[in-house]
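Researcher: I'd like a structural prediction for the single chain below. Treat it as a standalone chain; there are no partners to consider.
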Amino acid sequence: MLLDARDLPNDTELTPTVCIAGAGAAGITLARALRGSGFSVVLLEAGGYQLEADTQSLYEGKSVGIPYYHLHLTRLRYLGGTTNHWTGWCRPLDTIDFEHRPGIPHSGWPLTRAELDPYYARAQAIAELGPYDYAPQSWAARERQPLLPLDPALAATALWQFSPPTRFGGRYRDDLERAVDIDTFLYANVVNIETTSNGSRVAAVRAVTLDKKRLTVRPQVFVLALGAMENARLLLASTDGHPGGLGNRNDVVGRYFLEHPHANLGVLLTSASPEDFNFYRGVHNCRAGSPPAIRCALMIPEERLREERLSGFSATLEARIESPTVGRDLRIGVESLMRDLQRTRARASYQIFGRLEQIPEPTSRVYLGPRRDRIGMRRLILDWRLAPQTGGHVRRSMELLAAAIGKSRLGRVYSFLHANDPPCPARWPDVIGGHHHMGTTRMGGDPRDSVVDRDLRVHGIENFYVAGSSVFPTSGFSNPTLTIIALALRLADHLREVVK
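Model: Treating it as a single chain, here is the predicted structure.
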C-alpha cells in the first residue's frame, strides 16, 4: 500500500517486522523480495511521486575536495530515487574486483563474485535486461559484429547492457500499491536512529514530514538504504548514546567515499573502417530488443592488472574530439594530431574517454557541516580525493592500450597524459565524477576498517543492516546499479533465514 505520511496523526507509531529507509533501487528491490515472507514491511520514502523543490533542497551540501557537482543535483529525493535520472548502464563487477590486491590499498570484499553470481542473474530481470551474459564474444556472434583483434595480454573488451532505463518508482509503483504486506510511506524523512541502552539493537527509527509531523517505527529489523551520502549522513547524525555517530566507533563511517573518475585521456587514430568499430564507437541497438542496447569499451585484462598491480581501467571511444583544458602545450599537441590525421591514411579518430576504478582512500569522505536544513539535519560536506598513485596507474594503462592498438595494426594512440604531465597529478587532466556514489559504510570482516559485515549487518548491532553502494569496499569500473540490486536480493534471502 502507498500512503502519505502527511496524512497520519502526529506521533504515529508502527511496529513492522522490517523497516527500510529509502525507496530507490536497493530499498524497492529489497521490499519486493520480502513479499510473501510472512514479514510486515514498512518502506519510508522522503519524497513523493515526482521531483519537488522543497524536498530536493534537503540534499544541498558543500564540496571541498576535487571539484564536484552540486550535491543536490547528483541524486534525486523521490520514489525511485536516483534511478529517476539513471541512464541504464549495467555490468557486474569483475572477479578481480572482489579480491584483495597487492598494490591496491584497502582492497578486498568479504565475499566472492561466485557468491554474488546467482543474484546478478536474478537482477537482470529487475533491471529489464537480457540474459546474464557479459561475454563480448557471445554478443558479437549474436549481433554479427566484429570485435577488435587485440592482444589478450595487453587489452580486452568490456561489455555493458543497457536497461531501458528502469525507473524503479514508476515501474514498480503498482507492485507497492497492491502489496498487502508492504506499507510505503511517502514524505517520511528519517532523521534519527535510536538504539537500546546497551547499543546492541535498533529500538526506534524517527521520521518527520516537512511540516514537522512525527512518525516513529519500532521494527524487529531496520535496513538503511538511502544512498552512499545519506546513509553516512544519518549514521553520523544519530548520536544518542553514540558520540561519534552510530556504527562509527572506529571513525570509518563517511570515509572511503568512492566515485568513478571520468576523463578524456587521449585520441585514437585508426586506418580501420568505421564498421570495425561498430561495437565500440557508440551504443549498439540489439536485434532482439532485450536488452534494448549494449556497448563495448576497452579494458586492461585481469591478469595484467594482477601482474602490474594496477587499478581497474576502461575506456569508451567517442566520435567527438575534445582537448583537455590543462595547458597550451597540450592543446597545441591535439591540433597537431588533427593535422597529422589529414595528412595520413587514417580514416577516423576517436576520443579515448576513461571510466576508471578509484583506489580506496580513507581521506576521501563525507562528513557533517555546521549548517542545517529545514528539518534540522546537518548538511553534508564532500571531500572527494584520489590516492597519490592514481595518475601512475592510469598512465600505465594508457601505455598498455597504446601497445595493443599498435600491435594489432589498428592505428596509434596519442595520450594526453604523456603529452603534458600536469602539475597536479591527482587531476589528470580534467577529472569528473560519474554520479556513482559508493563507499562510506564499507563491508569487511574487521570493525576497525569497515562498518558492515559480509551479510551487510552493522558491526555490533544485531538488527541493523545497510543496503546500497555505500557498502562497496572497492568499486571496479562497472556502474554500480546492477550490484546494488544483486546485494539487495542477497540481503532479502539472508533476512528470510534469520528473522523469526
